């Protein structure tokens, strides 16, 4: 039997749709991408706000169902809920 570990990252809508949060998230994402690949595309805060809007739409469309459900051969389960 495998151990289950749950990681919850709650993000309120007011925080997700805040332009300041989008700028901070964009800076963090661009910094992480630049360390991985030199010619990585740079995100803008407008791109980040579009991403947040898509996540909100997915939350309503999925209605509690997982966005991603993976089960490996060794019994490890990865489930992403939005």
Task: Briefly say what this structure is.
With 82 residues, the protein is mostly helical. It has 3 helices and 2 strands, in the order H-H-H-E-E.
General description of the model:
The protein is mainly alpha-helical and 82 residues long. The protein has one domain (13-80). Helices cover 49% and strands 10% of the residues. It has three helices and two strands. The chain has helices spanning 13-16, 19-36, 45-62; strands spanning 68-71, 77-80. It has a two-stranded antiparallel sheet. α2 (19-36) crosses α3 (45-62). The longest helix is centred in the middle third of the chain and has 18 residues, at 19-36. The relative contact order is 0.14. The mean pLDDT is 76.
Lay out the secondary structure.
Elements: H1 13-16, H2 19-36, H3 45-62, E1 68-71, E2 77-80
Antiparallel strand pairs: 1-2
Helix pairs in contact: 2-3
Major sheet: order of its strands? 1-2
Q: Please trace the helix and strand order, writing H or E for each element.
A: HHHEE
Shape: globular
Oligomeric organization of the protein chains? single chain
Amino- and carboxy-terminal Cα gap:
26 Å
For the record, the count of structural domains works out to: 1
Helicity level: 40-55%
What is the mean predicted local confidence, pLDDT?
76
Largest sheet, in brief, is: 2 strands, antiparallel
**Computed CA radius of gyration, to the nearest angstrom:** 16 Å
The tally of helices reads: 3
């Amino acid at each position: 039997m495998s151990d289950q570990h749950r990681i919850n990252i709650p993000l309120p809508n007011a925080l997700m749709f805040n332009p300041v949060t989008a700028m901070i998230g964009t800076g963090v994402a661009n910094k992480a991408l630049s360390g991985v690949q030199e010619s990585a595309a740079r995100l803008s805060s407008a791109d980040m706000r579009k991403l947040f809007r898509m996540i909100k739409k997915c939350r309503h469309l999925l209605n509690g169902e997982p966005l991603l459900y993976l089960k490996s051969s060794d019994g490890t389960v990865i489930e992403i809920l939005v």
